[in-house]
Amino acid sequence: MRAKIILAFVLGPLVVGSAALAQEAAAEKLLVVVHKDSPIAVISKNDVKNIFLGNVTFWGDNVPLVPIVRDVRTAAGQALFADLLNMAPTRFRQYWQSRQLAGRGVAPQTTEGLPATIERVAAARGAISVIVASEAGVAGARVRVVPIQ
User: Fold this and answer.
1) What residues have CB less than 8 Å from 40, skipping those under 6 apart?
2) What residues does each domain of the chain span?
3) Of 15, 49, 84, 124, which one's alpha carbon is 20 to 30 angstroms from that of 25?
4) Spatial separation of the C-alpha atoms in residues 130 and 4, rounded to whole Å
5) How much of the chain, in percent, has pLDDT values that exceed 90?
């Protein structure tokens, strides 16, 4: 019982303080960023969800996928969890803990800011992450921005 109270206390400010971010994320279109050499031109919501849940692990050209989760305190992170994955960040962590313990994959990396996200996506050919439309202009030439349908 005590662990639940502590967990609620730690996560409480994130949930309460993120109402403005949730509204901002809902107002902006969510996009993905991939390595500049990635062959994809468009991706479905279902494909993005399956990638971040570990159900799809390779691009079509046999390149291992490297999903990178944005911090839940960002508008893109909020949108990923609310709109694409349909689960709370805590449930996502539990989901990946179970998968890892069963030997069914490795949890996605997490980044805090856009520069760190772009750096990681640019460094790995199979990398994929999410951004909101207002971030697309600063993504840079080392990555490609792809719409989600």
Assistant:
1) 34, 59, 146
2) 2-147
3) 124
4) 31
5) 71
* Number of residues in the chain: 149
Query: Any idea which architecture 2-147 has in CATH?
Result: 3-Layer(aba) Sandwich (3.40)
CB atoms within 10 A of CB 12: 10
pLDDT at 76: 96
Contact 99, 54 (CB under 8 A): yes
| Residue 86 backbone zone (phi > 0: left; psi -120 to 50: alpha; other: beta) | left
Question: pTM (2 decimals)?
Answer: 0.81
Residues of the chain below pLDDT 50:
1-17, 21-22, 24-25
Token look-up 């639940």 returns 4
Residue 23: predicted pLDDT: 52
Q: Which amino acid is at 13?
A: P
* 8 Å CB contact between 108 and 46: no
List the strands of the sheet with 109-111, edge to edge.
Answer: 109-111, 66-70, 127-132, 30-35, 143-147
